[in-house]
Amino acid sequence: MHRKSTLDVRIKSIKQETATIKRFTLQELNGSKLPPFSGGSHITTYLPKEAGALERSYSVFNLSEPGLIEIAIRLAKPSTGGSDYWHHRVTEGDVLKISYPKNHFALSFQAKHHVFYAAGIGITPFLSMMADLAEKEQSFELHYTAKSKEQCAFYDHLKKTYPGHCHFYFSEGEKPKRLTVNLLKNHRIGTHVYFCGPEKMILEFTNAAKSFGYPAFNVHYERFAPPVKKDSVPFGITLKKSGKHFIVPTEQSLLDVLRQNGIDVPYSCRVGGCGTCEVKVAEGEIDHYDSFLTEDQQRSNRAILSCVSRGKGNLVLDI
């Protein structure tokens, strides 16, 4: 999504949730309430840098007073810039720009029961989802894995707020317990499952759900980063209407190259999940890395999500 409109917010407080995760509470500058959001929403934050801004998106929740927005950020090693900036440069009282809340990971209101599977920092979108469902007295449960209780962000809050709904799996310690895909076999018909965590976990659980017979529309997941592309190579693009030709290098996305050359392609999630950056393709073969297009749409090679997917050879874009 373009930065057509942003909000200036102040860092009200910073709390160390675990050794590697900090919670940041954001407030409106004039003391009024920040925009409301639905379960699963996120914001894009714009961090100042020498040229332009560093854009990073984070799931939002609110465990504090009404009218605030909170995000939790794990310090990544190595960091591509975002988490390092938040952990080491942002302090209470700082003013930053954020987008309005957006939601590409919404709850399904066709579900008879919601089951959330979280690994590590993947807990964050489920904090707002569970709050929404609890308020409406709807059925849900959480399965949450971390290395230990000490590294399990929001453990005390979850145990206190949702007794009987939360199941924890710690892979280290005296009695290690692992979160496995076999749990998917235990849910009743009408259940919708939601996955959030590392790419390996998401792939394992989505593939298992498919193999166990879950309908595609009952399976939901959210990525924090674009999927890893194996053996990525440069490819060419030709714009059908102007005849202009560009090369997309290995380290850049098609979206980056188009926007650098004045092609105003809208975007939002940058991880292939929302469909905002879709571009029509007239000719060529595509390596699809998105989770938005259907299998039939991907096989047709008539559309590409420019933030993550790549061409094989040369693509002719219908723009």
UniProtKB/TrEMBL annotation:
GO molecular function, one term: 2 iron, 2 sulfur cluster binding
The entry's keywords: 2Fe-2S, Flavoprotein, FMN, Iron, Iron-sulfur, Metal-binding, Oxidoreductase
InterPro entries: 2Fe-2S_ferredoxin-like_sf, 2Fe-2S_ferredoxin-type, 2Fe2S_fd_BS, Benzoxazolinone_Detox_Enz, Beta-grasp_dom_sf, DmmA-like_N, FAD-bd_FR_type, FNR_nucleotide-bd
2Fe-2S ferredoxin-type domain mapped to chain residues: 235-319
Residue ranges constituting the FAD-binding FR-type domain according to the UniProt record: 4-108
Iron among keywords: yes
PROSITE patterns: 2FE2S_FER_1 (PS00197), 2FE2S_FER_2 (PS51085), FAD_FR (PS51384)
Pfam families per UniProt: DmmA-like_N (PF22290), Fer2 (PF00111)
UniProt key word Cytoplasm: no
Cofactor: FMN
Name of the featured protein: Oxidoreductase
Source organism of the structure: Mesobacillus selenatarsenatis
Taxonomic lineage from the root: Bacteria, Bacillati, Bacillota, Bacilli, Bacillales
